[in-house]
Design a protein that fits this description.
421 residues; alpha+beta; globular; 14 helices; single chain
């Protein structure tokens, strides 16, 4: 649906937690903890009660076993009440953007006037699970009826059964092509002649831009959170490296294609815990509650690409978005392309350039990206829209596009228009 043919949906408020780089073991916060912490201050400053929200939509890639339909858990913990429905969506790296898109469609259909939508993930808590051999052995043992049958099954146990499935690695692998996301980044780097030096230079730029944004308070939607385990107040993202340098980045070894690859942990997005949410409202709700819209979601586009070049998803999605909404690249003031990998962003820019389309780098990811800020998969699609709105507001601009590549071979793109008072 285009902005001309559908009712407007406004972003009236937004908030996120600091993004916390995964370091040593499970973090202090579950995915629902992070979501609640992100949303509470935002809801407290509204002119309506949480019970007046129409629904809650949440994107989440790796909810824990205790957080089935995590959106409902978040809704109840926030005090939205038992009558407010909630559902969870999952589109890999674009889960948060999918939550926003789903909320837009629900508002445009007339189902609701106010929707709380966002994304969350505690990637540090991604579980280890039993492998299939262990599961099959357990099942056979449980099915044994006699003592002799049980002894027989116990003797069939093998130590290799204890090798766990690491769900985080499984989730970051496309099993249809047997390639990890990092290997697909190597593929697009090869196809578009992206060098290791180019990747490291881009990674350094991400850190420097994020550092500058933090110092100049351009990352203003972050709410402080308290780690009750350590007693520390966390005020800001902890993945930004002020001491990042090309010399240091150059010493890092390839991780996904050893020993000859180009993609390293330094020029890849960080594994991170975090949550980001927005309040979306119809024009009627804006008038009824005296809300002050910051921007509107003018249009969204989804596109598919070959899984082995999933990093090119933004190219297909942005082209589709612009084609369907008759907007040229020149009419877009600022851009966000999620930094899954340096190689992926640079390959997208080269792909656009080869087709005669240009995204000026000084207007792309101006406050840094996932390489420096982190990539909690469920939340990143909301974070980039949030950051885009900040860029538009801080620079007196009107229109922007936020886009992500999506594991499995997809791309998503969202056209954002700033609302001027």
């Amino acid at each position: 649906m285009t902005s001309e043919s559908s009712s407007s949906v406004y972003i009236v408020d937004m908030s996120r937690t600091p993004f916390l780089r995964v370091e040593k073991g499970p973090g202090s916060f579950s995915a629902s903890d992070l979501a609640v912490l992100a949303c509470q201050p935002m809801l407290l400053r509204q002119s309506f009660l949480p019970t007046e929200i129409g629904e809650v939509v949440t994107g989440c890639m790796i909810p824990s076993s205790e957080e089935a339909n995590i959106s409902r858990i978040i809704s109840l913990r926030l005090g939205c009440g038992q009558r407010v429905p909630a559902y969870t969506v999952q589109r890999n790296c674009a889960s948060g953007m999918q939550a926003l898109d789903s909320a837009v469609l629900d508002i445009q259909s007339g189902r609701h006037d106010i929707v709380l939508a966002g994304g969350t993930d505690a990637m540090s808590r991604a579980p280890l699970t039993f492998n299939f051999a262990m599961t099959r052995w357990f099942s056979a043992l449980a099915a044994s009826r006699t003592f002799s049958q049980k002894i027989k099954m116990l003797l069939r146990f093998r130590p290799r059964f204890l090798s766990p499935d690491i769900s985080l690695l499984q989730g970051l692998t496309d099993h249809t092509i047997r390639m990890s996301m990092g290997q697909t980044a190597e593929e697009v780097a090869y196809r578009y002649r992206v060098s290791r030096q180019m990747m490291d230079e881009y990674a350094l730029q991400s850190h420097m831009r994020a550092l500058d944004a933090r110092q100049n308070k351009h990352l203003s939607n972050i709410v402080p959170i308290v780690d009750v385990q350590s007693g520390k107040i966390i005020m800001e993202d902890n993945g930004i490296r002020a001491d990042s340098a090309l010399e240091k980045l150059a010493t890092l070894k390839p991780f996904f294609d050893k020993p000859f690859g180009l993609v390293t942990p330094g020029n890849s997005s960080q594994i991170t815990d975090g949550a980001a949410f927005m309040l979306l409202a119809s024009e009627e709700a804006v008038k009824k509650y005296g809300l002050k819209p910051r921007a509107k979601i003018a249009a969204t586009a989804w596109a598919g690409v070959a899984p082995e070049v999933m990093g090119l998803g933004p190219v297909a999605a942005i082209q589709k978005l612009c084609r369907e909404n008759s907007c040229s690249f020149d009419s877009i003031d600022y851009w966000e392309i999620n930094e899954a990998f340096s190689a992926q962003v640079l390959a997208c820019l080269r792909a656009f350039s080869e087709e005669g389309e240009l995204i000026p780098e000084p207007r792309l990811n101006i406050y840094g990206g996932a390489i420096s800020l982190g990539h909690p998969v469920g939340a990143s699609g909301v974070r980039i829209v949030m950051q885009l709105i900040n860029a538009l507001e801080n620079n007196g601009a009107k229109r922007g596009i936020a886009s992500l590549c999506i594991g499995g071979g997809q791309g998503g793109a969202m056209l954002i228009e700033r609302v001027f008072e």
